[in-house]
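STRUCTURE:
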């Protein structure tokens, strides 16, 4: 799956989406996603299957469980793990989904 194809899946949530960061400041809610690495399947000294590690970051002013549900519905075809935090200096909630495609 290409990053552009993955972006289209995230856009189904209905909020702005960007790879890594927006060019200009964006008011929440919005999604940023990145590909921090890979977890390829290898054997006999070769890569048999490329596996992208992806991170999806949902930013909201307040915790929005309906929006989290929408992101999780968009990611329904992928196994994911979720962590949440509050960024004090920005006054923003961050929900992070980690997955592989």
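SEQUENCE:
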């Amino acid at each position: 799956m290409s990053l552009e194809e993955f972006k289209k899946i995230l856009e189904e949530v209905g909020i702005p989406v960007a790879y890594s960061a927006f060019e200009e400041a964006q008011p929440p809610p919005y999604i940023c996603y990145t590909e921090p690495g890979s977890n390829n399947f290898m054997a006999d000294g070769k890569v048999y299957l490329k596996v992208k590690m992806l991170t999806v970051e949902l930013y909201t002013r307040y915790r929005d469980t309906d929006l989290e549900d929408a992101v999780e519905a968009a990611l329904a075809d992928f196994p994911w793990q979720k962590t949440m935090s509050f960024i004090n200096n920005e006054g923003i909630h961050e929900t992070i989904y980690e997955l592989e495609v």
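REMARK: Residues 65-74 form the longest helix (10 residues).
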